[in-house]
Structures are given as C-alpha cells and as structure tokens.
Write a structure and sequence with these properties.
By secondary structure, this protein is mainly beta. The chain folds into 2 domains: about 1-25 and about 150-250, no CATH class; about 35-145, Jelly Rolls, CATH 2.60.120. It has 3 helices and 18 strands.
C-alpha cells in the first residue's frame, strides 16, 4: 500500500532467494580517529576546485560540498604516499558509495540525493601507524543541473517531511527466500525522476536515483542492476547482495 498522491495498490512479491549481505565499512581501511571537516565552495562561475595539503598518520579529513540529485561528481586524487586514498559518501548516507582502497584514486558518478557530499581523505592503517605523511592534490568537479524536487503545490508532501509518498516494498538479503517488507519514501523530481529512500527492518537505509522512470544510481558501492517486470523495477545491489521491488506508481505518482 502506498500513502500519498497516487493510486493504492499492493506490491508484488519477490520470488528469488537472496545471498549474504555484507556491510562495507565507511572508512574502507582508514585508521580510527577524530575526523576534521572543511567546507568546500566553488568560486563564482566555476564548477571545480583543486585542493592541496598534507595528511599525517591517522589524520582523517572530510571535504564537504553541496550538490543536488542528478548531478555528476568527479574526484581525482594524487598523493605522494601510495597508501593515501579517499572515499565518497552521498548526502544523507553513512556508507561510502566509493571506496578508494579497492577502487583506485579516481571517481565519477551520479549523486542520488540533495545535500552535503563528503569526500574523505585518509592514510591506510599501516601507513598511519608508522606516522607517514602524504602531500596530496584533490580535484573536485560537479557538472549538470540538479533534478529539482516537484513543488508541494503540484504534489503534496507527507506532513512534516520532504517526501511526496510512502510505501512498504518487498525486499530481501542474507540468503533467505523469505521476503521482508521495507519502508520506502520518495522525493519526486522533474522529468519523471525521483529519489527513493528504502529502510530495511534492521534499519539499513539505501537511496536510489531514478531518471526518467529508470533506476540509474544508488548510494552504495556495489553495482546496481535493474530489471523490469510489468510496472515494477527489480533492483539488485551487487551479486545477489540486496534486492528491492519498486513499483512505478511510487516513483511517478498517478
């Protein structure tokens, strides 16, 4: 059942079994320490910035920059220490959608949500314990126009929230054929686009970006696979990692 300005219906059940869900740590090998935060703003008329500095030991630095859903973020890091990496966290997420220690020092991807994106710089634990340093250059670029939320005058919001509608959707993980019910909320956007936020019974939150009705990105590091079954998008994160069924009516309204 969906609550909001759409037709009410019961979502379809999932038929596939789900394999073990593995939570990747946000730090991705970063030594545990207090995190320094710096706000990043672009100069007027520009969409990029080059940041330079030095990391030492277990120092961890978050660069925060404002961005919108549907924009593309590019990050390139050059460090004098080969153990110098970065992670990227989407706005509203505590999980890294990009983990540099396993994926390298360049990232380019769509952002699923509005707000502060965090680019986290760190040295891996072995280098941090040895109090090594790294002189780094970090380039951040944001391109594209954000997908603006549909105004409440056109699609009423759920009281006290930024969401246009809510539902319970079939979901699953952990190698069990049993289908769970996850809470889902949607921010509908221009051009039949949306951000769907799904929370599992265990409290894990996932964000998915739909562009022109199709799921194209998430706030997780695992690749997103999408299949269609009637008016339902079947979303899978990773190789049998997590599965979600999102009905078109939640994304588009009706």
């Amino acid at each position: 059942m969906i609550i909001g300005k759409i037709k009410i219906r019961t979502p379809l059940a999932l038929g596939a079994a789900f394999l073990l869900a593995i939570n990747l740590p946000m730090g991705g090998g970063v030594a545990q320490t207090a995190i320094e935060t710096q706000r990043v703003t672009f100069a007027a008329g520009t969409n990029s910035i080059l940041l330079q500095g030095q990391l030492k030991g277990d120092q961890t630095l978050d660069y925060k920059l404002r961005a919108g859903a549907g924009q593309t973020l590019t990050v390139d890091l050059k460090g004098s220490n080969l153990q110098n990496y970065f992670n990227v966290m989407a706005a509203g997420s505590e999980n890294a959608l990009f983990i540099g220690s396993s994926s390298g020092n360049s990232f380019r991807g769509l952002l699923p949500s509005d707000g502060d994106v965090r680019v986290r710089l760190f040295l891996m634990r072995p280098a941090a314990r040895r109090q090594e340093t790294s002189n780094y250059s970090l380039r951040l670029v944001i391109v594209g126009a954000p997908l603006a939320p549909v105004p409440a005058s056109r699609d009423a919001l759920l009281p006290g929230t930024p969401y246009h509608a809510a539902a319970e959707v079939p979901c699953g993980s952990g190698g069990s054929a049993k289908v769970a019910r996850c809470k889902a909320f949607v921010i509908r956007r221009a051009n039949n686009s949306a951000t769907v936020v799904v929370t599992s019974p265990e409290g894990q939150k996932r964000q998915f970006l739909f562009v022109q009705g199709k799921a194209v990105a998430s706030d997780q590091p695992e690749p997103l696979a999408v299949q269609r079954r009637g008016d339902v998008s079947l979303l899978r994160l990773g190789d049998n990692f997590e599965d979600y069924e999102i009905v078109d009516a939640l994304v588009l309204g009706g």
